[in-house]
Amino acid sequence: MHFRTLRQLAEQAEAAGLSIGRYMLQEQAGESGKTPAEEFQQMATYYGIMKDAVRRGLTEDTTSRSGLTGQDAKRILAYRGGAATPSVEVPPIAGAAPGADASPGAKATLGAGSPPHAEAPLGAEVPPGGHTLLGDEASLAMSYALAVSEVNASMGRIIATPTAGSCGIIPGVFVSCQERFGWSDEDMTHGLFAAGAIGYVIANNSFVSGAEGGCQAEVGSAIGMAAGALADMRGAKPTQAIHAVGLALKNSLGLVCDPVGGLVEVPCIVRNGFGAVTALAAADMALAGVRSVIPSDEVVQVMLEVGTAMPDTLRETARGGLAQTPTGQQIMKDLRKKK
Amino acid sequence: MNGPAGTGPSGGVAVRFKDVFSIIGPPMIGPSSSHTAGAARIGRAARQLFGPLPKRADVIFYGSFAATYEGHGTYAAIVGGLLDMATDDVRLPDSLAIAEQSGMQADAITGKGLFPHPNTAELHLYADAGDEKPAFTLVGTSIGGGNIEIVDIDGFKVKMTGNYPTLVIQNADAPGMIAIVARLLQQHGINIGTMSVDRKSRSGEAMMVLETDEDFPPTLRGELAAYDEIHSVRFVHIT
């Protein structure tokens, strides 16, 4: 790779007259010695796996091995008033409230000809749709992100982006934005190269594992990658898109890795849902011209500094934080008994 | 600690993550890339270096691995790797049962003492379950996103990521050994990406680990083994 910093990445892409994603595809082929077509195909396959994980998280049982988590993506979707999308056909579930699709908020997203609207998958009390505070788009991204993380926690197949603990954020915003903006799979694959380019810089200048740098290194990195890639896909100049990375990372600095019972469930899954929403927000800020006053590369260095200063107890050891609350300890005890 | 590079934006230190697919990927069975996918890759590297299915495996965990290996399924992942499963093999969650059926006894052990990284696993593989001493040992670290660094093979200090076709040679510590290997690879048009060498003592046993850009031709093993000073030739392919 010819770049080591986000600034170099953006400047080189701009000099080449390419988006970050297209520039990274070139760089990747140069690094691997394979053709750009081969590299593109591999990434396209990965995107297919991501879409499949979204679908499975919304249609299959995602109860985790511990039983602590599962079905939250479906809860969001039901509360939202249903989503009908080309890639995710949520089958009607017996016992669901009929007529959910008639509610004002049950608006189909893009490309829906005669969409099969989702109904309350859990037979829950579903208020009339359209009540989300977030709005349709962000709540959809959130539910998709939860879906993929729930598939991960139930030992399903996912793509680590950059890690499994943070695997929901990029698919969450990518798949929902694809439906909304009518982007092709080819567009999305380029977007993944953009996300990968940003992650490459973060990983090599800081870290991407909770054991090394806390949750900021996993969920934080994924949000930065997603935000920068979204801005790139929406046509921001590379130097502008890179601001989204710094803006996003600043919001997750200091986030500790404190999984209850050592499981990638609590709080990891909901943090992926929040992460998707934050990524949309950071991309919007950058697209609006908001700048990260502290340059994104310097924020990456701060993440390194903060993560290095984190005590072991808050770096994926389950010896501190939420894992050691009275409830966290009780859950751990119960899990041991269950074995 | 084998931690992050910690370079400034101008960065002169080697990159730990080489390409886009070490960030986007690997495809894997959850729940944790460092504790599941990386662990599976450590186990698989050990299996490919050892050769046959070991009759017994001691899996020794350190750091974060030791604290959370049950929850993350790290142990099942390493055992799956020892069964030569890839990170996205759907049988991974059932690896412990499969190991038992296949005749491999495995034990998870919490390690004590110093370790090179928060996510460290040490593997002792035995040719026979009753053996006192392991026939093979390996220390691997899982550095995030499914990426690994193998730092010790049979007591030799090495550097191996598993991201490339890898050649592991054990040889007599003698002048010209590296030249012999390099020349053979050159003849096959194989480019060496990284290389690490270590020895037990002067003129004793030595090991070299080479990560290359191209796959190895089937004839290479015999060509290398023809040299008396070369005692073993092993290939690892877990990209």
TrEMBL record, chain A:
Top-level class of the enzyme under EC nomenclature: lyase
Enzyme nomenclature, EC number: 4.3.1.17
Compositionally skewed regions (Low complexity) per UniProt: 91-108
Molecular-function annotations in GO: 4 iron, 4 sulfur cluster binding; L-serine ammonia-lyase activity; metal ion binding
Pathway assignment: Carbohydrate biosynthesis; gluconeogenesis
Reported cofactor(s): [4Fe-4S] cluster
Source species, domain of life: Bacteria
Keyword Iron-sulfur: yes
Region of interest (Disordered), residue spans: 90-124, 317-339
Catalytic activity from the UniProt record: L-serine = pyruvate + NH4(+)
Alphabetically ordered keywords of this record: 4Fe-4S, Gluconeogenesis, Iron, Iron-sulfur, Lyase, Metal-binding
Occurrences of domain Serine dehydratase-like alpha subunit (ranges): 16-323
Homology family: Belongs to the iron-sulfur dependent L-serine dehydratase family.
Matching NCBIfam families: sda_alpha
UniProt cross-references to PANTHER family, sorted A to Z: L-SERINE DEHYDRATASE, L-SERINE DEHYDRATASE 1
Protein name, as recorded: L-serine dehydratase
